[in-house]
Every structure is written in C-alpha cells, then in structure tokens.
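S1.2 Input.
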Amino acid sequence: MAAMDSLVMNLVSFWRKTNIRQNFPWLFLVISVVGSIVKDMQLIPETYFSNSRNVLNVYFVKVSWGWTLLLLFPFITLSNAHDRGLTFVLRRLCSLAVATGVWYACTHSFFFIEDYTGACYESRALEEVRLEFTSKADCRRAGLAWDGYDISGHCFILAYSALVIAEEMAPMVQLKGSGWRGPAYAGAALDALYVALNAIVALWIWMFACTSVYFHDMSHKLLGTSCAVLGWYLTYRVWYTKPLSPGLPPLQTQGKRQA
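S1.3 Output.
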C-alpha cells in the first residue's frame, strides 16, 4: 500500500509541473519529425517493433481507443464524483462522447481520403491498375495492392488518446493535495486506475515513436499527428472553456478562473 501511495504521489508530482503539461502536445510533433528523419536515413535497424504483427500493436494499438475508454470511464466517474453531484459527473463523462466523435470523424475521414486518392494494383510494384476495384477494402479482399494517400491513423489515435488522458488525469493533483475523504476501496481503485492510465500513456508514446521510425512517410505522420493536436486543442483549450460544453476537469477549471 505504501509503495502504491509513493508511486501515485511521484506521478502526481510529475504531471503537476507546468512545463510538462504545456509541452506535452509538442512531444508528438517532434517525435514525428525526428522519427521520419531517422526512418529516411535508415539509422535504426529492423527490430521486433518494426513488424506490425508485434503483440503490442495487435492487442493494444489496434484497439487503443477501447483501452483508453476502458480506463478513463471509471477514472472520470470516481475522480469527478468526489464532493460533487451526479449532474457534474455526467457532464464530465460527455467529454468521452465528444472525444469518441472526434476519433470516429477523423479516422473515417482518413479512410475516405485513402480511397479517394488511391487505385488498386495487381501487385506492390504498382504496374497494372485494376479499375474494377474502387475501394481499399475490396482491393485488399481480392488479394491485390492498394496505393493511396495513407494518413497515419496510428499517429493520430496514439497522440490523441495520450493528450485526452493527460487532461482527464488532472483532478488527481487536487485529490491528493486535499486528501481523499471517500471510501477506502474507492481511493484504492482510483490509485490503481491512475497508475494504469500513466502506464498506457507511456505505452502510447513508445508505440508512437515506433510508428515514427518504422512506418509511413513524414507527411502522413505529421498530418495524423496534427489532426490529433488540433482535435485536443479545439476541445480542451477552446470549447470546454465555454459554458455550453462538457467543461474542463476540476483542476483546469480552477486554473482558468484564477487566471
């Protein structure tokens, strides 16, 4: 128990640093650029993570939004219910619905762009076009090769998930500062969820870096990452500061009022 408390406090202290929170979105843009340069110069040899079938990619990245929702839903519920009513909790949970809408709109836009700009070929040599196939799904289903403008969905979802989680974890700073006054089991669950969320953020950053150095062109990665940062900025820095919105997590709300 003492080890868990110490770990949680260390994580809280880390996220309490203003420069960490302010520069966090820039981290993904920097990794995209540096990773792309490293990839183009072939500075890093192939490893286990250069294979898209690696276990982290298959069981975590490909369902990354599911993992994000699975951990954030109970955490937002517990952390925002402390000394607040059901209405406030439901309002804050609406941020997950909004984030899911952003995720859905962006990823499906990426699919549409790849279909609209692409063509189906007999092989990866891209020599003979198969005009009867007009979508990536039909082309791949036929065992052929599709070539289109492939905006990196991995870069988008990993960066966007990490940014949303970092915002929603903010109440833990206030809760640990003022002292948890709820049931002990709820406090233990909150600590476990907080550690798990930090672990998943670290995993998303690692897999984002792997994507940057092994897959996609620079423009594909930068555009996917930029969409993630823009989606985060328009919600947490613009819309959520307004009255008619899900609102910011408690700590950010206090910060906005004090500012």
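S1.4 Remarks. The longest helix spans residues 86-117.
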